[in-house]
Amino acid sequence: MKEIIKILLVFILVYFLRYMYDVVINLPTYMDTTLFIISVIVVVIYSFVKRKDYLDFNIISLASVFYLVGVAVFSGIVFFGLKISLSLIFMFYAKPPVIYYDCKIVGGGYSRNGVSTDFEFNRRRYSRMTAVNEDAVEHKKDYVAEVGLKKTLLDSYYIVSFEIKRKDEK
């Protein structure tokens, strides 16, 4: 029963990650590194407390390889959980006025969920899924991404709206 609950928690985490991961942009670059280091430390400490027999670690044994793979996978899960929590905190502290920016479309691609549109904001590249406007990916010089943002903590922004428009509509 505990294993089923753990699997369900991972699926819930992946579901929220799909919708929450890219709603906060312009985060400081050290944020991801810090969150990943914290997640690795938490997982390693947790695994050593739970399984003290891994303290006599032998790098050549197959069990050690599985242990390292487990630490890496579980660290990734903890990292994304921390990232989603951080996104929720940043969304909560978003300041009310919505500021609209016209961002340059720098690329994109197609998937079964829609069209991925890559845009540039503050000299950093971000990607958003859109349901329509496949033409914008092909003719990106004729289109602009209008992004509605609210300013939040650490000079980052919460994406409120995202729309692709032709440049001549402005």
Q: Which helices and strands occur, and which strands form pairs?
A:
Elements: H1 2-20, E1 24-25, H2 29-50, H3 62-92, E2 99-111, E3 114-121, E4 124-130, H4 134-138, E5 143-151, E6 157-166
Antiparallel strand pairs: 1-6, 2-3, 2-5, 3-4, 5-6
Helix pairs in contact: 1-3, 2-3
Characterization of the model:
The protein is an alpha+beta fold and 170 residues long. The chain folds into two domains: 2-92, no CATH class; 99-169, SH3 type barrels (Roll). It contains four helices and six strands. It has helices spanning 2-20, 29-50, 62-92, 134-138, and strands at 24-25, 99-111, 114-121, 124-130, 143-151, 157-166. It has a six-stranded antiparallel beta sheet with strand order 1-6-5-2-3-4. Strand 2 and strand 3 form a beta hairpin. Helix 1 crosses helix 3 and helix 2 (29-50) packs across helix 3 (62-92). The N and C termini lie far apart (57 Å).
Poorly predicted spans: none
- Averaged pLDDT: 79
Tell me roughly what share of residues is in helical segments.
40-55%
Number of E-type strands: 6
| N-to-C series of helices and strands | HEHHEEEHEE
Strand content: 25-35%
Which word captures the global form?
A: elongated
Helix-and-strand structural type: alpha+beta
Rg, Cα atoms, Å: 20 Å
Number of domains: 2
Distance between the termini: 57 Å
Question: In order across it, which strands form the biggest sheet?
Answer: 1-6-5-2-3-4
Describe the structure concisely.
The chain is 45% helix and 29% strand. With 170 residues, the protein is an alpha+beta fold. A hairpin with a 2-residue loop joins strand 3 and strand 4.
